[in-house]
Amino acid sequence: MISLRGLTKRYGDKLVVDDLTLDVRSGRVTGFLGPNGAGKSTTMRMILGLDHPTRGRALIAGRPYADLRRPLRAVGAMLDARAVHPARSGRAHLIAQARANGIPVRRVDEVLETVGLGEAARRPAGTYSLGMSGRLGVAGALLGDPPVLILDEPVNGLDPDGVRWIRRLVRDRAAEGRTVFLSSHLMSEMQLTADHLVVIGRGRLLDDTSMADFLASASPASARASVPDPEERAALVRRLTACDGVGVETSADGTLLVEGRTAAEVGDLAHHCGVRLHGLGDVRVSLEQAYMDLTARSVEYVTGGPAAETTGPPDGTHGRSGGAEGDGR
Ligand SMILES: Nc1ncnc2c1ncn2[C@@H]1O[C@H](COP(=O)(O)OP(=O)(O)OP(=O)(O)O)[C@@H](O)[C@H]1O
Q: Gly residues composition bias: which ranges (predicted)?
């Protein structure tokens, strides 16, 4: 487990990480989200002892990073995939890390195979593509077979096969009971990968919740139903719109979008009225939409316009508007 207690970082007069208190628990993948400059990398660097907190503490399994005797055996991390001496081969890079941590060289060859770099292992790391550098970074994180993994943008530069590979890798590690903490701006991928989310904006905690609750709280229930018979469709719409808080949109092909009711509720009502349905399902908000709603007021660097002046609300509450349709999990 990773524990942050009042973790705070100030660079000059800029408060970059603001009083973060949370636990990143084992046995699940925790996604770390936030707009550019929100303080994610700085938080990860403080967990890994690469930056000193201005205030507060970051602990790994109850200890500060600096107190870990064999750090790579306690926590594996990839923060900057390109931070490798360009003239050194990937294998030599890993061997140096392994030696410093009492890890046998055969483990280096093992992790190089695991990340698919077996053949490129003896080439200078400076000749690696971004995706290959990422794979080498992940190999370094896996080297000590640690119970805690911290990965900053691990899918950056990876091809679709590599993205799926990372997803499987981190999910398998979490299923083994390890702690996985990873950041990504790829929301669709995060939706498939993470069980739990920590969201920050301008250094402050905006949410610390399960993926399911994050998505559920982002939008009211809504369902989609296809009713082939026009008269039955009209009857169902009448019954639905007679209820408070329910809105129905009918598309050209006769599909109903029912806001304010779950698929189960729409199915029950249709059954009760003797209405035949061809398609019925819940409409889920996408992580991207839920995230955009939550962080809208915490974005510092806005595309095509001035940045918002306000920060996110201090108590973690937020007005979300739902609505966008997503692919669910
Ligand atoms: N060494 C430093 N000195 C001064 N400011 C810094 C330093 N490192 C980071 N910052 C600032 O701290 C803020 C947070 O940066 P950080 O890299 O932690 O954000 P991030 O959430 O990881 O962003 P991104 O998603 O763009 O990677 C930024 O405004 C950045 O400019």
A: 319-329
* Helices within 78-210 (DSSP H only): 90-100, 105-114, 130-142, 160-175, 187-193
**pLDDT tens digits, one per residue of 141-175:** 999 999 999 999 999 888 898 999 999 999 999 99
How many other C-beta atoms lie within 10 A of the C-beta of residue 93?
Answer: 21
Give me the pLDDT at residue 296, please: 77
d(CA 88, CA 95) in angstroms, rounded, equals: 11
Structural domains of the chain, with CATH: 2-209 (3.40.50.300), 220-282 (3.30.70)
Q: Choose which residue among 15, 20, 40 to substitute to test ligand 1 binding: the one with the highest number of ligand atoms within 8 A of its C-beta.
A: 40
pLDDT-flagged residues of the chain (< 50) = 306-329
SS3 of 206-246: the string is EEEEEHHHHHHHHCCCEEEEECCCHHHHHHHHHHHHCCCCC
pTM: 0.81
Q: Which amino acid is at 113?
A: E
For residue 223, the CA-to-ligand 1 centroid distance in Å is 41
Q: Is the CB of 307 under 6 A from ligand 1?
A: no
Angle at 153 between CA 151 and CA 154, to 5 degrees: 65
- Give the model's pLDDT for residue 260: 86
What is residue 322's predicted lDDT score, i.e. its pLDDT?
A: 33
Ligand 1 pocket, residue 38 CB under 6 Å: yes
